[in-house]
Structures are given as structure tokens and as C-alpha cells.
Amino acid sequence: MAEIIDGNAVAEEIKEEILAEKARLEEKGITPGIATLLVGDDFGSKMYRGQVEKNCESVGFNYIEKTLPAETTEEQVIEVVKELNADPRVSGILPLRPFPEHISDSAVIQNIREDKDIDCFHPANMGRLALGEPTLAPCTPSACIELMERVGVEFEGAEIVVTGHSNIVGKPVALLALNRNATVTVTHIFTSQAGNLEKHTTGADILIVAAGKAGLITADLVKEGAVVIDVGINRVKVLDDEGNPVLNEKGKPKTKTVGDVAFDEVKEKAKAITPVPGGVGAVTNMMLLKNALTAAKMQAGLE
User: Fold this and answer.
1) Domain range 139-282, CATH architecture
2) Which of 2, 12, 55, 122: disulfide with 267, CB 3.0–4.6 Å?
3) Helices 170-178 and 123-131, packing angle to 10 deg
4) Is the Cα dihedral 71, 74, 75, 76 positive or negative?
5) What is the rounded distance in angstroms from the CA atom of residue 161 to the CA atom of residue 34?
6) What tens digit of pLDDT does each residue of 21-68 get?
């Protein structure tokens, strides 16, 4: 049976390291800070904003909230970005997407200062990542790597298969693994549609799954003794033994959060596996703070 990689415990370790480093920076008169930028009232973005604020408070970082009406023009949003670029309280800017349709993601992101781009959305930072140069790395991909490094996973020469090729997780985590001298294969929906997913995933020493489909990876798709990192976050109905939805006290179907991996069956075959929740997500929150800390040092000429 697999070792269950405890993301919450790793997150606490990182938090203690952040607190120690922050104390050293404060001796130099530096306090890291994060600014969130929300346009409109997307529910998921507001939930994430609240989490970022809570996390900043937990380590004593500055937190600045910028929330603009949905009808704000692209030019006005960019002006707010430029104000945050110039604000010494802000070491990192986090644009909360999706933006309203009339606002271009790329226009906003490309106006964020590269050294305040704490989730590595800026093309220059992504380019540095591709070249293997020091940069601010995307938080969720970094969390995947951090989890594995802290439990002693060896990257050099390992066969790593990434399932999912998004710009947010799949592509950058593949680059981070390549930069650690792993052999990397990226699979995605079209791999699956061609009937070729199994031949790749069953050869993986390390399988990183970020496809956004609950239960996609079953035990037959996993190599015996593989390390499995589940990035997926999906809400599904709770079912009884007969496959019927379980209802709550209001008569509505109960739901639960699951990953992209069929956890209960895959854990019997894998060497190590991350749960959902309690795995990658917990560490992602800390990697955002860690990036803000690094950005503060960069801006002070200390990094």
C-alpha cells in the first residue's frame, strides 16, 4: 500500500520556513506583500481571494485587495496594475481570473512587472522557466515538485508522465521536471482519444495528473510502485452502495471533493500518492507566499 504524502504537513513545514525568512527580512525593513486583482464577482475567484488574504494574515504579509466592477475597461484595469507595480507594499501581484470577456488576460498579465509576477503568468518568466533560468515558478507545478523533493523522490533519469497540458499546470510542471533531468512525456485529452494513454502512464515512475476529470486514472493505468501526484480538484456526488446519490437534510445530493485519480484503488498499487484534499492544494497556497517572499528579496537586490 502506498505512502500517503501529507500535503498539510509539508505546507506547515514551508510556512515555518517562510516565517523564519520573513523575520530576517524585517530586520532589513522589508515586509513582503500580495495584491489580488479581481474584476467582477466570479464566485470561485472570490473564494480564492479570501484564502489568499487569510494566508497572508497567517504569516504577517501585507495584503492589498483591488476589486473592480465588471464593466471596468481594460485600460482602467491596466492602470490599476501599474499602480500596484509602483506600490512598495506589494511584492507580488495576483490577477484573479477569469476576467470579463472584454478584458484580455494577456494584456493584463504582460503589464505586471516581471519581478512581481508571483504565479509566473508573464511570458518572460515562462520563457525563463523553459530555458532553465532562475525565475518565479508557477505555484501549483512548484507544489508538485516540492512535495516530491521533500519525500525523497529522485528526478534524474526518472520516467515522468504528465497527464494534462494546460499552461497553468501541465506544461510548466513538465518544464520543472525537465530542468531536474527527468525524462518527461506529456499526455492529454487527445492522447486518450487516440487510445494511447495507457501505454504512456503504465511506464511512468512518476505520474502527475492534472486533467480535470474525476477518476480518470484507475489502477490499470498505473505502474506498480509508481509515485502518483494528483493535482485534480473535482466536485462529485456522494453515492451509496447501489450507486444512487446520497441526499442531505435538504433533500439535495451530497457532494465531495476528489482528484483525477481513483485514490482508493490506485493507493494499493502505487509507492506513494497525494490525496485530494490534503495534497497538492495545501502546498500550492504556501508556494504563493514563498514566491512573494522571493519577489520581495529580488526587489530589494537580495536575490
Assistant:
1) 3-Layer(aba) Sandwich (3.40)
2) 2
3) 30
4) positive
5) 33
6) 999 999 999 999 999 999 999 999 999 999 999 999 999 999 999 999
Distance CA 206, CA 186 (A): 12
CB contact at 8 A, 55 and 36? no
Sign of CA dihedral 255, 258, 264, 265: positive
Reading the block at residue 298, the C-alpha cell is 529580488
Average confidence score pLDDT of the chain:
96
Give tens-digit pLDDT for 79-97: 999 999 999 999 999 999 9
d(CA 67, CA 62): 16
Measured distance CA(21)–CA(19) in Å, rounded:
6
Q: pLDDT value at position 252?
A: 85
Query: Has residue 4 got a pLDDT over 80?
Result: yes
Residue 214 CA, distance from chain mean position: 17
* pLDDT tens digit sequence for 149-187: 999 999 999 999 999 999 999 999 999 999 999 999 999
Task: Cite the beta strand spans of the chain per DSSP E.
Answer: 3-4, 33-39, 62-68, 92-96, 159-163, 183-187, 206-209, 227-230, 234-237, 255-258, 272-273
* Domain spans, the chain: 28-115, 139-282
Q: What is the pLDDT of residues 256-288, one digit of tens each?
A: 999 999 999 999 999 999 999 999 999 999 999
36: three-class secondary structure by DSSP: strand
Query: Mapping DSSP to helix (H, G, I), strand (E, B) and coil, where does residue 110 land?
Result: coil
